[in-house]
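Page 37, continued from 36.
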């Protein structure tokens, strides 16, 4: 339970971040099997926006990952994102948690996806399709989260 790090019963990391001037916390990835309500609620209570990233797990690590489907990531991300929606990203009334400002669809696709720009664009577009269908299936209403993909600052030799 990581609440002992960020929560009021623990170290108060989110409160400390707010006290030193932060307005946003960026998370690299998440485990969609865990409930995120407590973290998102505490971030909201502290006045912090959250930028959450989808875990690398469905992209490159799990059995049946995007790697094994030619980087067609639709089903892997639809399933993972549906779990995220059910475990805190979506609140009562089928609206997004007010703390969740932006979702990073994939971290550093230029470093993780082999096969160059064609392959990482395929991964991103198919992941986006899966995410949008998960939102539709869940019945999301109201303002949607911003979407992003973070690329590395490294040179992409495959991109030349």
């Amino acid at each position: 339970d990581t609440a002992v790090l960020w929560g009021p019963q623990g170290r108060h990391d989110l409160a400390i971040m707010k006290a030193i001037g932060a307005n946003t916390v960026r998370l690299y990835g998440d485990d969609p099997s865990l409930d995120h309500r407590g973290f998102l609620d505490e971030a909201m209570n502290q006045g912090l926006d959250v930028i959450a990233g989808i875990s690398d797990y469905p992209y490159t690590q799990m059995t049946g990952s995007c790697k094994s489907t030619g980087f067609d990531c639709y089903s892997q991300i639809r399933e993972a994102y549906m779990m995220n929606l059910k475990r805190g990203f979506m609140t009562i009334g089928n609206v997004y948690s007010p703390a969740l400002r932006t979702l990073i669809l994939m971290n550093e696709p230029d470093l993780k996806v082999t096969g160059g720009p064609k392959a990482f664009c395929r991964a991103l577009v198919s992941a986006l399709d899966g995410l949008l269908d998960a939102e539709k299936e869940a019945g999301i209403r109201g303002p949607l989260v911003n979407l992003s993909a973070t690329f590395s600052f490294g040179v992409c030799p495959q991109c030349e």
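The chain is about 40% helix and 15% strand. Flag for discussion at group meeting. Residues 81 and 131 are 6 Å apart (CA to CA).
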